[in-house]
Design a protein that fits this description.
Elements lengths: L1 E6 L3 E3 L4 E9 L1 E12 L6 E7 L4 E3 L7 E6 L4 E6 L8 E11 L4 E5 L3 E6 L1
Parallel strand pairs: 2-11
Antiparallel strand pairs: 1-3, 3-8, 4-5, 4-9, 5-6, 7-8, 9-10, 9-11
Length: 120
Amino acid sequence: QVQVVESGGRSVQTGESLGLSCSASGRIVSIDRMGWYREAPGNQRELVARILRDGSIEYADSVKGRFTISRDSNKNTVYLQMDSLKSEDTGVYYCNALVIWGLGGFFDAWGQGTLVTVSS
């Protein structure tokens, strides 16, 4: 099994900053990609940012220039620094890790989500 646990979600004001963290644990051989998705009320889950195995990074257009994803590979942990937060950033943020795990093959792990609320 592989577990993913997020932390850091809370309520903030428009324009403030907030950091999220996510750690993967379990029978992990290596991580293929790891990142953040969010689900706003009434909307489908969407990619926010993710880091691929080779270190390349993908961001949603709506967060480019405001959000920064980083990782600590030794700790199987990714971070999401969110600056200049807007009300439309409100949602449940889910961490996802696609790992190669101990029993062989890929394991697509999701966290339970952490709520970010941005209000004016």
